[in-house]
């Protein structure tokens, strides 16, 4: 048996059939195939087994592969030849509930399926006498815990993600760890960390003894602090040492929020700093006259702001305190900061040295102090840059820029070069604007103009100069850390063609021009069974960059949408057209289907998945005509033709002197066969009164005589 050093027990695998329900066991029309073997390192599964005899109507093969805790099961498809209707399912069953890993719709040669636990269940099912086959290879692999989340304002390092490995958590200076500092990856069916990841929080006060160097931040920093806070910090340096405080940030709401720093160990000590009394922060910081400093932060019930961030350090008698510059670095002739030490400052790329001196010296043996204040490094608004590489930062970065700013930066490199701009961060207000000009002033061609937020992208100039203009709205509401921009730039070679594009796997490319000059179009196409993911056409743009990223050819695992059929609705078996899915078309009322109503997506091997049938059509329904219903005696039909189409009408009228009894209009009602809406009407003669005028020729004929000699005729 192979040895796995990270586990206490040797690796094993069992191939067995899981328990089946009783009604399945008793069903005589289902054939089951089960193998049970012990495998040392790896094994193969052939479904169904070649040794299986002919089955009657249904075959069901089930396999359960189990390895020791801390290991998972990897299954690779070596060969697959499924028949239509065959089903195959891979499930992870080792962590209490089943999780679908794959099914027959994505099965292809070379596919690798990995479990997340130490058990995987495979089932092959067929209801056809001509069953397909699958050959699988399986082996164990070491499972691991997921990489733990890094705490906000902290960091995490991991010795190993496998069982027994540990994760170590720490916080940035000024923050305290809430939770365990060390977590262990525990061995289980699915490995897990021994606890929840900790958080890094800024405490509201505390006693800090034996101070060397550190930082205090208000709760929530760099986000806003809460209301109604009263925080007390007491700093205590080693005996015989003093304390120095450097202000990184003080931003309090303009109400009754207050920062007090006392030269002693209580609120009753002498005041070194009071935000009520001082409008500007002392650039040189604060010095204690003893080994203690007391700091109090109070906030009221209204308003809030970023808060405070102060650095503190202890220093020995006869020495200056260790200088500090935020967003910069320093070099010193003596790292003990003794009298005579000389310190030189420099800013990080993108920042400019302001106020103070570039070089300071520790002077006065009786009372050691620096001969000048430390400088400050700030991201400024505007500037002319001639470096071959660097960065442009929004004003005050990483803090928010100010309202109503109009900043212009000019970048200039060697004349035979051009500039590549890497826009790494762009997160400005919707009414703020940044514009890139392809030249040394604002009249040059615009490379791009942007506002709001945008993910990372690149721009190329056509010459050695670029001008960047940033304009912030006077009413902008941008605030907080990391709102602004970071633009890195690099000097690159100038040429007249776009860079060569590589070939892609499972496809090929064609080029409209062999030299890849501006306007050249490269077309990517894929082999049968594969489809282009990304842009098929890439164009060499005026700045000699391609119009998009390189596409890829990925194997088609689903059919294309066949489309809709006019005068019909369709019923889908699922949201995606994967292999095995179906679409049923149902014609609207009055239309009949021409073709197959059911389409099935199946895998055609090298040519990829296709629909098994063409789209049907919904044609207007046709009906047999109605024969002429006949003409009644003394009747007149509107048409004498022998046959009437479904939906047509036939009108009847009677000769003069006749009355129509029945329906005057008949409709040919659609059907198989079509029928008239009723029987033809009847024409009946009207009654007429005739008087014998030879008997009574005068107007004086009596009414009795007239009535007696009246003749009634009917026809």
UniProtKB/TrEMBL annotation:
Lineage of origin: Eukaryota, Metazoa, Chordata, Craniata, Vertebrata
Assigned keywords, A-Z: Disulfide bond, Repeat, Sushi
GO biological process: one example: regulation of dendrite development
UniProt-listed SMART domains: CCP (SM00032), CUB (SM00042)
Disulphide linkage map: 204-231, 526-553
Designated gene of the protein: SEZ6
Coiled-coil segments on the chain, per record: none
One GO term describing the cellular component: dendritic shaft
Keyword check for Membrane: no
InterPro entries per UniProt: CUB_dom, SEZ6_CSMD_C4BPB_Regulators, Sperma_CUB_dom_sf, Sushi/SCR/CCP_sf, Sushi_SCR_CCP_dom
Species this chain originates from: Sparus aurata (Gilthead sea bream)
Domain of life: Eukaryota
Name this protein carries in UniProt: Seizure related 6 homolog
Keyword Chaperone: no
